[in-house]
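Supplementary Methods, section 5.1.

A reviewer requested that the exact input to the structure prediction be made available. We therefore reproduce it here, unchanged from the version used in the analyses.
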Amino acid sequence: MPNIKSAEKRVRQSAKRRTINRAVHSKVGSVRHDAFEALAKRDKEAAVKLLSAYASTLDKAAKKGIIKANTANRRKSRLAQRIRALG
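The structure derived from this sequence is encoded token-by-token as follows.
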């Protein structure tokens, strides 16, 4: 346990941030799962809609600094390539 007041505050802040970060990571994973499920079913219309939702979720996570901007861009690009490959 921390003995210093500022360290106690740091522990509280870290715990709060961790819960927020985990929630955002979970949201990204859920939307990603839905998008890839649509790809597996070869449903292009649903996949395109989910690409938009996935891109939005990734951009929000990158804006908050939870994932890096390049990571978000790479993931969006790879999903878009897979959707284009459906034909």
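The radius of gyration is 17 Å. These observations are discussed further in the main text.
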